[in-house]
Amino acid sequence: MRIVLGVGGGIAAYKVASLLRLFTEAGHHVTVIPTEAATRFVGTATWEALSGNPVSNSVFDDVHQVNHVRLGHEADLVVIAPATADLLAKAATGQAGDLLTNTLLMAHGPVLFAPAMHTEMWQHAATRANVETLRGRGAAVLEPATGRLTGADSGPGRLPEPEVIFDAAMALVQGQSDYQLPLAGKTVTISAGGTREPLDPVRFLGNRSSGKQGVALAVAARNAGATVRLLAAHMEVPPPAGVEVVQVETALQLREAAMAAAADSDVVIMSAAVADFRPAEVSNTKIKKRDDTADPVITLVRNPDILQELVERRNIAGAGEGQQLIVGFAAETGDSQGDVRAYAEAKLQRKGCDLLVVNHVGTDKVFGQDTNSVVILSRSGSEPQEAAGTKTEVSAAIISRIGFELNHVSPRA
User: Fold this and answer.
1) Among the options 57, 207, 359, 372, which is catalytic?
2) Number of other residues whose CB lies within 10 A of the CB of residue 270
3) What is the pLDDT of residues 72-99, one digit of tens each?
């Protein structure tokens, strides 16, 4: 595939080098066209070395090849990253002052813009109007990520991660000319890992959760265009790039973080393994094992039901018309009183969440493994959905179902 990669003049231009490598390693022929301002951030030598092709931003180079016409005609895909406020404005108004804007006017194939700019620029009425104009003409314009910007500021305006742009670009050329990421513009909070409840400064009550499923969910949500906030309890894997990470340890800390994060979240996914109980008392010193003392007796108290509280708060805040989607996880084992599905169905009704992802756990199942098998139950009464495979594949299925629920299900009562 022949790709034109247009690079705007923003500090995020350095991240586009990674995007270029993703394209070339996938076997695509890439012509890089930086704006003049972009070359102040990353020089043409870098683009030529990574693409293997000559790089220019002038309509007067290689005039005999009529590049300002040819490149747009031949391109199977045009990707603009970072799409600065200036570039979006020029594209929306049809300006053609350099090789890149000429190429945009001549492009016959799909065009993808990946914006990056300061928050106020992105939220300005002029930029929003330019984005709507471009989308109205059939161009795909991603939502920027939220996070640290140039300097000390943070907010929406970060360039989406190269992997996100790559996935969107590939989807765009696979016959999806009206492609839009299913969670674009959405904020998704995901809890992951296992909480630890301290007994003393050395010991704790914990569980076998590795955090792999929660991290895979964060990646899938990020790749679906969402701004992702990961509430990370103890995890055996690192958090992914391009997401906001809030570190927690105990169930009470997770509750506090979840309540704060849910306030501005469109989706909340509680995939963390939260301890049901915690020690009633925590010793300030290590509990000693002495021959002249009796064995310690540890009294446990219940931890709050975070999932149920999130649902209750959502329903109260939404006055019965809440737009927020809440997804719970149920790690179940069957016993003489019932099987996994029966316990899960009862939990779904008790918790009141919109979706419940159920898996059958055991000493050699789910926890710490790279594969998973789940059933997605819906409070709306739709047929259970099964998903199995790697945790990446299972996460993709869950995020796809969430996207469907947000876009096709009426507001929840």
Assistant:
1) 207
2) 25
3) 778 889 999 999 999 999 999 999 989 9
